[in-house]
Amino acid sequence: MIKIVHYINQFYAGVGGEEKADIGPHMQEGAMGPGAALKAAFGGDAEITHTIYCGDSYYAENTEKASAEILEMIQKVKPDVFIAGPAFNAGRYGLACGSISKIVQEKLEIPVVTGMYQENPGAEMYKDSIYIIATKDSAAGMRDAAPKLAKLALKLAKGEKIGASIEEGYMPGKARVNFFEEKRGSRRAVEMLLAKISGKPFVTEFPMPDFDRVAPAAAIDVKTARFAIVTSGGIVPKGNPDRIESSSASKYGEYAYADVNADPSTVYETAHGGYDPVYANQNGYRVLPYDTLLNYEKEGKIGSIHGKYYTTVGNGTAVKDSAKFGQEIAEKLLADGVNAVILTST
Amino acid sequence: MKLEVGYINITDIQFGNECKVAGGTLHVNQDCLKELILSDARIAEVSFDIARPGESVRITPVKDVIEPRTKVGTDEMGIFPGILNKVKTVGMGRTHVLKGAAVVTCGQIVGFQEGIIDMSGPGADYTPFSATNNLVVLFTPKADIQPHDYEQALRMAGLKVAAFLGDLGKEVTPDVVETYETLPILEQKAKYPDLPRIGYVQMLQTQGLLHDTYVYGVDMKESLTTMINPTEVMDGAIISGNCVSACDKNTTYHHQNNPVIADMFEENGKSLIFAGMIITNENVFLMDKERSSDWTAKLCKMMGFDGVVITQEGFGNPDTDLMMNCKKVEDVGVPTVIVTDEYAGRDGTSQSLADVDAAANAVVTGGNANEVITLPKMDKVIGTLQYVDVIAGGFENNTQPDGSIVVELQAIIGATNELGFNKMSAR
Amino acid sequence: MDILITNNPLCRDYFADIYNVEFSDISAYFILQKVRDFVHLGHGVLTHPRAGGLPPGTSPYKSVLLTGRQDMKNSLQSLEIVENSVKAYEKARTEFSEKHLEHFAKLDLSLLAPNAHKKH
Fold first, then answer.
1. Do the domain assignments include residue B258?
2. Are the CB atoms for A38 and A6 separated by under 8 Å?
3. Could you give phi then psi for residue B425, rounded to 5 degrees?
4. What DSSP designation does B210 have?
5. What pLDDT, in 10s, does the model give residues A314-344?
6. Looking at the domain assignment, is residue B311 inside a domain?
7. B243 is catalytic
8. In chain B, how many domains are there?
9. Which of A37, A265, A289, C64, CA to CA, is 20 to 30 A from A218?
10. What is d(CA A300, CA A302) in angstroms, rounded to the nearest whole number?
């Protein structure tokens, strides 16, 4: 019998909602929550012997510790396959599923499969490393996802050849796999061209690598320019008044600079999860170089400094959301007469 | 320009005393062919064999595959113009084809660039020539011959044999007759005012000695990007003279049966106007690449194409030509679809193409040439297995104790063809 | 005078009077690294480093022609081409067959001098 360990978050384990997101990993025998649907999909070919659940915040904020704890649990059970999720469109859950799956695959060399919605930030981050079944954006997609997860998990456990992404339902990225189409290539090319010229949808068979390149703007005279700082490094006024999330941020903040003579550790902190925040919390200017910029202004190296800065958290934040933030921030800066921006990250 | 093509279905090849086509069988007298071939002093010996679909046969090392065709009712035009016959514009009148028959030339030229054809088993799914009745011509060159001389001798011999066999179909009544026609530009538009005018850009392998393609006898690397009528290609105006990886070299057979030309003619007057065809090269020097791709874009614009399909040959540095062509054609406002193949490593995780560009947003792929396949032992080998470890796609000690060989698809003739000849793709 | 970076003795001899030949007896991969060094110094790539239709690692020989001038510092094209080639060769298995060294050398020469074979 093929043994499976299933990873889910605190929600799906029935432990609790956001208020329980900081619980550490626990392992329990048998299937729980969505494991039931997987169990049905396996028929009698495989068994979920154990379920591990962990709070999403706990995993995000203590990734190293949490993953080590989970690895230890899995090692005891020695499953044939590890399944995580599916996480659908839950950002932190998707990141946790992707992260722990990748770690299990690398450290324990156990085949892994997870599932999530294509816009989940975990998909972009992990689809090149692990098999991620593409699911709908909510748990309503469980019925569709379960058979695909189960089928792929069984194939992996048996060491069978894994077909192309389009055949198995996983997200393209991990590996290019050959398969036979119904029509020959020339016919597909002619049909694709006819679709392309008439503005109809078509799917390229080889997506080009992401080329999100921005052409450099014309040079400016820094001596007269008005400068602003925008950061994805999460520097916020002490206390994080707008509660910007530590990962998968849903918003950005607009703040006035604190008095530069104050002890930075008392006026700023970082909201950013997923990295060691000690140095950013000690001195926010390490991420938000306002102090240096002020000196430049005094020395006449730059024109002036805009009084407000914009900040968000880059950790796992969806590209789509980041692009939206960027556009809004740019409009505000333009309206305020800013013509030079320094962008910093963690 | 209008061409009538009569297809004579060939279901078997047999050796005998006569050379003739009768009842769907191609009868071949080996002595006639021998005489034809040994007239070239560079070839010491030649022998023949027959490989039929479904047989437990492996053919290797394969250089080229050619379809027997002939011009009918003309003394002026001849098949393979400028190479075998006089340099008279072809693509008009009538052509007869021995459909289902192919001449396969076999001989080790450079040791590592020839391929495999399996007539049955898993390998047969990857090559179109497992479905043709193949007359295999095996050559032994004179001692101390240089590879480029041998390549030329072998190339010419293959063309001679194919033309000789094609001539046997001159008087035979075809099973099917098709007509292909490209109208002059103004007439196209007048006849189908509402259909998009679609062009075809074919890139030809021209990296130098042993990597060349000939058009009416001209070494294409010496040519500027130019235009050709698609029906000329059906009459053997373009022939293969290259020894590149077996999987994505366009054999002469592929040129004669160019699938993009076939599918565009199929749609001509229905969903599109097949408005014209451009041929360009894939040279080594960057200056040549720039010039040729500039000309491709310029001709696309001059022809007023509403869209083009661009096909490639080979991999590595031709990926740069492909991306230049794609980007420059898109830049002049003509949408493109490109047809290529991939070298994504045996595990499929490496970068597929040597060059990429954001303009290439519509890609058809012939699959990953590095994917590994085990070819089981065959009852009979035509040629020799001596080179299966050194051909591109083979590797050291790849013959298993049970006689099977492990190769990348790269070693199989036509496996990842970049004209879109096959159904294989990758994701 | 344009610069030829090569590890192929045939190219070294053939082009001795035509190009400034930088010959070193190093692997194809190190030749590409050397080409990259030159590109960073502002020399432009004249021939594509992946000419020949051979998978990386198949042939031991590699010859690349560069501009003698160093005015191509801002040419991203040369850098992109050479970086992509280096990357392709990083992963390459070197499995060339000793039996065919002479053929490999001739082929490599033919890519730069298509008519070389006619001269003897």
1. yes
2. yes
3. -145, -175
4. T
5. 876 767 788 889 999 999 999 999 999 999 9
6. yes
7. yes
8. 1
9. A289
10. 5
- Helix, strand, or coil here: B173? coil
pLDDT at position A213 is: 73
A292, two tokens: 């240096």
Please state the three-class secondary structure of chain C as a single string: CCEEEECCHHHHHHCCCCCEEEECCCCHHHHHHHHHHHHHCCCCECECCCCCCCCCCCCCCCEEEECCCCCCCCCHHHHHHHHHHHHHHHCCCCCCCHHHHHHHHHHHHHHHCCCHHHHC
Q: Where are the domains positioned within chain A?
A: 2-168, 226-344
CB B348 within 8 A of CB A177: yes
Q: Which chains touch A (3 or more CB pairs under 8 A)?
A: B
Q: What ipTM goes with this model?
A: 0.95
Give the number of other Cβ atoms within 10 Å of residue B196's Cβ. Answer: 17
Chains that touch C (3 or more CB pairs under 8 A): B
For the entire predicted model, the pTM comes to: 0.83
Domain boundaries defined on chain C = 3-119
Beta pairing class for B424-426 and C3-6: unpaired
Residue with tokens 């916020």: A236
Domain assignment of residue B183, yes or no:
yes
**How far, in Å, CA of B370 to CA of C93, rounded?**
13
User: Encoding tokens for residue A40?
Assistant: 């049905």
Measured between beta carbons, which residues in chain B are less than 8 angstroms from residue C52?
207, 211, 316-317
What's the CA gap between C77 and C74, in Å, rounded? Answer: 9
Cβ contacts (< 8 Å) between A182 and chain B: which residues? 423
Please list the pLDDT of chain C residue by residue as tens digits (120 residues): 899 999 999 999 999 999 999 999 999 999 999 999 999 888 999 999 988 777 888 889 999 999 998 887 667 788 888 888 898 888 776 666 676 788 888 888 988 887 666 544
**DSSP string covering B48-70, please?**
EEEE-TTSSEEEEEEEEEE--EE
Q: Does B209 touch chain C (CB under 8 A)?
A: yes
User: Residue A286 corresponds to which amino acid?
Assistant: R
Which pair of tokens denotes residue A80? 């044939």
Q: Which residue has the tokens 């299937």?
A: A31
Residues of chain B in contact with residue C65, where contact means CB-CB under 8 angstroms, are 285
Beta strands B336-342 and B307-311 are parallel
Residues B74 and B350: beta-carbon distance below 8 Å: no
Residue keyed to tokens 């021209």: B206
Going by their DSSP bridges, the two strands A178-180 and A268-270 should be labelled as unpaired
How distant is the Cα of A160 from the closest Cα of chain B, in angstroms?
14
| C52, burial (CB in 10 Å: exposed 0-12, middle 13-18, buried 19+) | buried
Inter-CA distances, B216 with A338, A343, B83, B204, Å: 64, 59, 6, 13
Indicate the CATH number of A2-168 among 3.90.1310.10, 2.30.40.10, 3.40.50.2300, 3.40.630.30. 3.40.50.2300
The parent domain of residue B252 ranges over 2-411
Instruction: Indicate the SS3 state at residue B162.
Output: helix
Catalytic one among B243, B247, B300, B326?
B243
Cβ–Cβ below 8 Å for B427 and A179 = yes
Give the Cα separation of B203 and B280 in Å (integer).
Answer: 5
